[in-house]
């Protein structure tokens, strides 16, 4: 290219790119850590020392000049290497080592803090109490270097919406103190043997979504009935989800575990919640002489079955908001005259309603022996048919806890017998019509 005198040389953008771009290996971007010696896992300690510390000659630049001063100066990023002990620590090797060591500063290895809490299972009331005491050294989540932590509890397997419990939020601290007790009702001994309690610590944010800090999981079989157990453990990251398609041939042994987990999940889907019932058979009793007697007292003096609907727990969500509007109906079958139906009040937007209502059936003990008490739970919907949540049949022809509850009621006349029952959807189809 010739340029006339007095004219400036102009270069197009295409020519500029052709001049400055040259083929060759792509070199890593230099970092501050490249200026400092690093201890490689495959090298000895003398390789990471300065030339004066290891008694090695100073490194030279490509031009042949001295690059490292005798006073223990820093290594130059342009130095080709340091020879000593038959080893050569090149620039590329130094940068690779820095990446390996710096990777230890990732979130996976950062301490999330510790959590201290107590668990107590009361077998008499079928309740599990979790007392959240305190946390220490939580991971900072906000710009001020602090967090607004709270704790969530979930029972696994199970629907999160139905069994989630939550503590209050403690503002601006990494060492919160809650001293708060959260209680699960309707926890049977079978649940204690097969369920797991997931404890999650989160940071509350008003303007954005809440952030996860850490979690831990406790197998409830570790908790003995009526004996408090203290925990003070480190928070962990959530476990990775297992995928059968991503398993290698060396990990196919966990397929049995996955099948068991799937069957457990299927079993949890069949359960529609729990119901606490109180049964009491009242034998005939004479009325007191004189004075006014309440109509209810007159009715119960003839003898019969008193059914107390106490509460429900962990009901299935039937509405789009993740809750239900539950109520309970009771029948004493066979009911040819269709006069045995009783119904509780509707409690809005809850999966753990508390009713505390009682219904009385005037009947003799001999007649009661051939009857079956059918209890169903429904979700109330305005303007359309109500949704069936679940139910339970209690009688001599029932099985398991339902049969035992009926027998205990008939044997212990005048005594209130309370028991939790698991709701299922396998009742006769006639009760599905509302």
Descriptive account of the structure:
The chain has 434 residues and is of the alpha+beta class. Among the domains are: 125 residues, Immunoglobulin-like (Sandwich), CATH 2.60.40.150; 157 residues, C2 domain (Immunoglobulin-like, Sandwich), CATH 2.60.40. It contains nine helices and 18 strands. The strands form five sheets. It has a four-stranded antiparallel beta sheet, with no helix packed on it. It has a four-stranded antiparallel beta sheet with strand order 6-5-8-9. A hairpin with a 2-residue loop joins strand 1 and strand 2. It is elongated and about 130 Å long. It starts with 12 loop residues before the first helix and ends in a 12-residue tail after the last strand.
